[in-house]
C-alpha cells in the first residue's frame, strides 16, 4: 500500500511540473520578449523584463517555438533567438541560441541553460562564438531532462554565469530536434 501511495505522489509531482523560462537582464535596459510558436501551437504573451531584473514565464506543455528580445525604444525586429522544444522526443527539452536571423544583435538573447545550473549551455556572453547557430545546418542544439530554463538578456560585459568561457564541451544535436522534426 505504501508503495502505491508513493508512486501516486511521484506521478502527481511530475504531472504538476510546468515548463518555464526565467529571463534575466544583465544590464539596465528594459526589454520586451516576443514569443513565436510553431504553427498550430499555443501563443505565449510577450513580457517586459525590467533592466537588471528577471521574469519567469510559464510555457505550455509540448511547446515548440522561439523568442527574441527588443530593447525599450527600438523597432520590433527579430534578432538573436532563443529556441526551444519542451517535452520533445523522449520527453526531453531541446534548446539553442540562434544567430541565423540577425547575427549582429549583441544586446538581446545571450545564453540559455537548465535552471539547476548544470550544463549544457547554448549561446555566449560575447558574440560571435562557437556555441550558437549561425547556419541552418550547424549542430548546436542542446538537450536536458529539465523543464526550467534560464535565458540571459543584455550586454554588461560581465560573465553571466560562473566564470566559464564561451566554448562548452557538452554534446550538440541537429536543429531538427528543437524544431520538433
Automatic annotation (TrEMBL):
<feature type="region of interest" description="Disordered">
    <location>
        <begin position="162"/>
        <end position="181"/>
    </location>
</feature>
<keyword id="KW-0732">Signal</keyword>
<protein>
    <recommendedName>
        <fullName>DNase1 protein</fullName>
    </recommendedName>
</protein>
<feature type="signal peptide">
    <location>
        <begin position="1"/>
        <end position="17"/>
    </location>
</feature>
